[in-house]
UniProtKB/TrEMBL annotation:
Keywords: Chaperone. SMART domains: DnaJ. It comes from the Bacteria. Residues 25-44, 59-105, 120-144 are annotated as: Disordered. It comes from Azospirillum oleiclasticum. This is J domain-containing protein. Gene3D superfamilies: DnaJ domain, Urease metallochaperone UreE, N-terminal domain. Residues 29-44, 59-83 have a biased composition (Basic and acidic residues). Residues 84-105 have a biased composition (Low complexity).
Length: 325
């Protein structure tokens, strides 16, 4: 598996925001749902997801940088020899053969030989001395139990499907496919955890999890604030002045709504229970309809003559009332 930094195309000094931005761009580009027939696209998507799983977790990223885990998140039997050599060389130049570094563990010449050759200097290359023999016993062979790494995935869902709840099938890194329940009211960038669907553990330890990030597509006229839905609806001049009953779309379908006489641009109507499930309260929110009065286009000549006659004897200052004069 490639180096995760190279996979995402970021520098080793990249910030978490830069890593996230690079992942989202690549995940959208290579998502199997978007390019199902592109050769190698699914494998590329899995590789990108695995790289993000390492670099998006500060602890795993630090362990990878120290050579303690590989690009797939699996535990290394020994530290990366090259990392050990670099660390030893740096400490030697600093004027000592044993010190505690920024990586949180002490390192000495003894450690260097252990990392490079898999044994202490006191042991021989063959059967080993007293200390070398104990290091190569059954306990060392069995190895530690290490939980498998989590794997990150993403799935794109239309706004209305996320509002009402839906299912999506994703292809996991080990080749299986899995149907994922998208709960009603799921928000953009919300993460769903699938237990045991990540990389397998070592030494009989449990597998990691699959972390599925839901990317909700924006809607052309609905917007969301927690559990509430907001919508701007145009109305005619006669509907505003005289009042009317109009059909208004909601996330569950159109409903009839009464527009009170004398309504104006900016008037807000509340539709109780017509929102979505709030992720904070788990209650269904409301829908707020903001009215916008729209004049005929092109202007109606009879209406223009009426307004001219009306304006000769009547006037009202809307800007002064709004505090703009």
């Amino acid at each position: 598996m490639r180096d995760p930094y190279q996979t995402l195309g970021v520098a080793r000094t990249a910030t978490s925001d830069e890593i996230k931005k690079a992942y989202r761009k690549l995940a959208k580009e290579h998502h199997p749902d978007r390019k199902p027939d592109a050769p190698g696209n699914e494998e590329r998507f899995k590789e990108v997801s695995a790289a993000y799983a390492i670099l998006s977790d500060p602890e795993k990223r630090a362990r990878y940088d120290r050579g303690e885990i590989d690009a797939g998140g699996a535990e290394r039997t020994h530290r990366d020899p090259r990392a050990g050599a670099r660390a030893y060389s740096a400490r030697a130049r600093a004027g000592g053969t044993s010190s505690a570094g920024d990586d949180g563990f002490s390192f000495s010449a003894e450690d260097f030989f252990h990392d490079m050759f898999g044994r202490r200097r006191s042991g021989s290359a063959g059967t080993g001395g007293a200390s070398g023999g104990s290091a190569g016993g059954a306990g060392a062979q069995s190895g530690p139990k290490v939980r498998g790494a989590d794997i990150a995935y993403s799935v794109a869902v239309p706004f209305l499907e996320a509002a009402q709840g839906t299912r999506r099938r994703i292809s996991l890194s080990h080749g299986k496919s899995l149907d994922v329940n998208i709960p009603p009211g799921t928000e953009n960038e919300q993460k769903l955890r699938l237990k045991g669907q990540g990389l397998p553990g070592l030494g009989g330890a449990e597998a990691g999890d699959a972390i599925v990030e839901v990317l909700v597509d924006p809607h052309p006229f609905f917007t969301r604030q927690d559990g509430d839905i907001h919508l701007e609806v145009p109305i005619t001049l006669n509907e505003a002045v005289l009042g009317s009953t109009i059909r208004v779309p909601t996330v569950t379908g159109p409903v009839a709504v009464k527009v009170p006489p004398g309504s104006n641009t900016g008037s807000i109507l509340r539709l109780r229970g017509k929102g979505v499930v709030s992720q904070k309260t788990k209650q269904t929110g409301d829908q707020y309809v903001k009215l916008k009065v729209v004049l005929p286009d092109p202007p109606d000549s009879e209406l223009v003559r009426f307004i001219e006659d009306w304006a000769r004897t009547r006037s009202y200052d809307v800007r002064k009332k709004a505090g703009l004069e």
